[in-house]
Amino acid sequence: MLADLGVSSMQIDNPERGFSYKLEGPLDLRLNPEMGIPASGRLRELSREELEGMLVENSDEPYAARIAAQITKTFRSGGAIETTTQLRDVIERALAFLPENGEKKEIVKKTCQRTFQALRIDVNSEFEVLEAFLDSLPQVLSPGGRAAILTFHSGEDRMVKKAFNRYYKEGVFRDISREVIRPSAEECFRNGRARPAKLRWAIRG
Questions:
Q1: How far apart are CA 53 and CA 98, in angstroms?
Q2: pTM score, two decimals?
Q3: Span 85-120, pLDDT tens digits
Q4: What do you get for the CA distance between the two ends of the chain, in Å?
Q5: CATH superfamily of the 126-204 domain
Q6: pLDDT tens profile 132-163
Q7: Cα(63)–Cα(2) distance, rounded to whole angstroms?
Q8: Would you list the domain boundaries of the chain?
Q9: Would you state the CATH architecture of domain 8-123?
Q10: What are the backbone angles phi and psi of residue 77, rounded to the nearest 5°?
């Protein structure tokens, strides 16, 4: 069984889906536009404390408190966060305290990436879906069956590592990867989106 937890590049590159802070579009972020509510609606549902917690839990965002405060301030002052660029502007305002130097642009870029990632995970209940999948592995793998899971951020990788270690200690898996398998420098050069990928595998006992 191979599980690729990455988001489709075609979805990311479609501005109508709202996955990229670089492209103007509705702040949606739903993998299935027919289900749930868009990210713009989700932001209005969450309190400042919940926003901060979501950013920390879903993307380890170091500026979570400042971003959550700026989002809340925007809504309280009658502002809107309905598009991808509006959210990007809010993030830039939250980081306005940073000194104007060569590093700031990169910090803002990575913060936007993490914030959009955290929102996407929340809107699509991705951690809950992954947890259910990991819980099902002992039942769906036959003895000797192999599972390989490809993750793209630290939150997913932690969940997979924790589950594999638990099943190994319980004797469910007879062997697991001790270290993650990462893409080569050549692959990252050919496909920049492969850079954060991590692969872990396990063999059913």
A1: 22
A2: 0.89
A3: 999 999 999 999 999 988 999 999 999 999 999 999
A4: 15
A5: Vaccinia Virus protein VP39 (3.40.50.150)
A6: 999 999 999 999 999 999 999 999 999 999 99
A7: 34
A8: 8-123, 126-204
A9: Orthogonal Bundle (1.10)
A10: -90, 5
